[in-house]
Amino acid sequence: MALNRDDKSPLFAPGVAGTLRLIVYLALACVLMVLDHRGGWLGNVRYGLSLVVEPVYRIAGLPSQGFQAATVAFADRQRLTEQNQRLREDLLLANAKLNRMASVAEQNTRLKELLDTQHSLSLNVQLARLIGVDLGSFRHRIVLNVGARDKVQPGQVVIDARGVMGQIVEVMPTTAVAMLITDPNHAIPVTIERTGLRTIAYGSRAGDMLTLPNIPVSADVQVGDKLVTSGLGGRFPPGFPVGEIRDVAQTASGTFLSAQAKPAADLDRSEDVLLLHDLAESAGPPPPAPNVGPPSDLKPDPAVAPTLPSVTSPTATPLPARASTAATPTGATP
Amino acid sequence: MNRLRVRQLWFAATLLLSLFLMLIPLPGPLTPFKPYWPALILLYWCLQSGDRVTLGLAFCVGVAADLFDGVLLGEQALRLTAMVFIALRFRSRLRFFPMWQQSLAVLGFLVNDRILLLLVRVFGGDPLPPVEYWISPLVGAALWPFVFLILDDLRARLRIHDA
Q1: Which of A178, A221, B33, B157 has the greatest number of C-beta atoms within 10 Å?
Q2: What does the pLDDT look like over A51-73, one tens digit per residue?
Q3: For the whole model, what pTM was predicted?
Q4: Which ipTM score applies to this complex?
């Protein structure tokens, strides 16, 4: 193998053959990219190869895990006590808020029951941990330690204690990849909590902010306004905090206001996240009732059907009532 | 025979290590400073034993990196193949450069690689990346002497010279 360059004639030495091979490989890479970009093909391959990929993720996640373990192990007592104290206070506050909310929630359920809707305030969630793996810089994606075996599906919403983090985009048997709301390819429908204005928050290319590029000029938007999910679009359930407006300015064309918002969730600090199980109700009109038309026991008796003059095809008889009534006039015209 | 086996193992191990280094995250603010490890290691092997690194190998390493990365299958395969091709072309010249010139050449390779990546992403419909996008090649070039010397030293210690 070491000498394989020397037994070729010098005329065809690296030059032409090498360039040809380069072209072949580049073309192959381009074909792969186009196939993958068009068909979302990589997901299937990765699912198939997850036997190899997932252990590698676990191993690659070990250093960051070890780093965290080390910070806990070497943290001094005072800091731990402080942290503990802070967590206690947070818990107390949260509990107090919950208690106050409980009565409201109960009232809400009662009223909702009266209205006969299916909303509920209780959350059906699943806890997941991050795996510390870097999926390329300027790619706002995270790897979670739950997957298809834990019944995770693409599209599930990922939240942390403070707000929406993103959504699952790819599921493998025991891991899942989530896209963060700051990804330039991500958009989330939001309302401004104070005014109820509906708009869309996109991820921005400059990292950890959200952009709201098309707010009407006349709209009332101020720095400090809170954004919550609006529930439109059927992906994110309504009412979860998304971020806070940090900056409002006119766009260059002057036709819209454009705002920058800071995500509410700790996108780069959260260790444990929650996966929402129930997806938001899909938008649009309700699906049509499955059996319209006269009940099936009113269907014409098959024994009577042959007496009708119209029906010629033998396949027409087993059709349900509606289809056969639709078929009779056309058959009767000749 | 045994010597050959050790040599091949060492070769495969460094390539695998480069893929792991690519996946291991740096703490938040340092993320843009992460060099493109598979490229550095492949370049080292290009210069050190050019008959072992072929375009096919670069393509395979790239596809493996894409599988781990999960962005776009074929993206890194394209970049690594192009880079290895250029490096093999100028191999005999690069080998006798002094270290600082080699670093500059590596900077050129890495910037070229970033431009390729930019092209692929823009064709794929992504927005233009921020300025920090261009830091990584500089870090890679700055690290090059160390990577080269450390790998060379390890190779000498393991006594697995070619020939």
Answers
A1: A178
A2: 778 888 888 888 888 888 888 78
A3: 0.68
A4: 0.81
